[in-house]
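User: quick one, sequence for these tokens?
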């Protein structure tokens, strides 16, 4: 049943079935933890989280609404640590139970920044769900309440994750062949 991976992919890190199973497990955890809450606001971070969020929210039973933010790093290096909001939420989150949904935690700067910004807006609670986190010390320092997978410190694509806006819609998470970004 496993089709050949895309020719640009060196190896598949997490296959589609494993992702789908993990999403169901995360949704079950979230359902359990929010069972006594009237409603959860899922905040997806564009663009990377949109595929993960679309599967996650459809697996949830707890009443929820969905909104989006988009951020961009200042300059070309993701390591500068400066993050800027380029699309903000439509409504106030004051008094709401907010679950931030991210694709991947790499340096951790984006998540750290968003957690600070959203906390300052006075939600009833703020938790974070990330599909994946890289095995690097900086990333490990940022709190993630619901984590899909821990992955090696390599550039990955698929299931929402991109390289220069390509390979986002692969159903699995894979490592690009080096010649693709050379
Ligand atoms: P940060 O370094 O934790 O701030 O990650 C910033 C953003 O870079 C993430 O939300 C992703 O959108 C993107 N990113 C980081 N690592 C990868 C990767 O391996 N593949 C695709 N996108 C990535
Ligand atoms: Mg992202």
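Assistant:
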């Amino acid at each position: 049943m496993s089709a050949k991976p895309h020719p640009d992919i060196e190896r598949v890190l997490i296959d589609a079935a494993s992702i789908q199973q993990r999403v169901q497990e995360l949704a079950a955890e979230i359902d359990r933890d929010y069972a006594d809450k009237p409603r959860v606001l899922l905040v997806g971070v564009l663009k990377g989280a949109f595929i993960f969020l679309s599967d996650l929210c459809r697996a949830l039973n707890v009443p929820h609404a969905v909104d989006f933010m988009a951020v961009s790093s200042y300059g070309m290096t993701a390591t500068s640590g400066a993050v800027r909001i380029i699309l903000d939420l439509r409504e106030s989150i004051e008094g709401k139970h907010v679950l931030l949904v991210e694709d991947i935690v790499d340096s951790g700067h984006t998540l750290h920044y968003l957690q600070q910004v959203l906390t300052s807006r006075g939600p009833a609670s703020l938790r974070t769900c990330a599909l994946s986190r890289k095995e690097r010390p900086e990333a490990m320092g940022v709190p993630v309440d619901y984590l899909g997978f821990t992955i090696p410190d390599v550039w990955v694509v698929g299931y929402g994750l991109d390289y220069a806006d390509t390979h986002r819609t692969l159903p699995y998470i894979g490592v690009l062949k080096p010649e693709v970004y050379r």
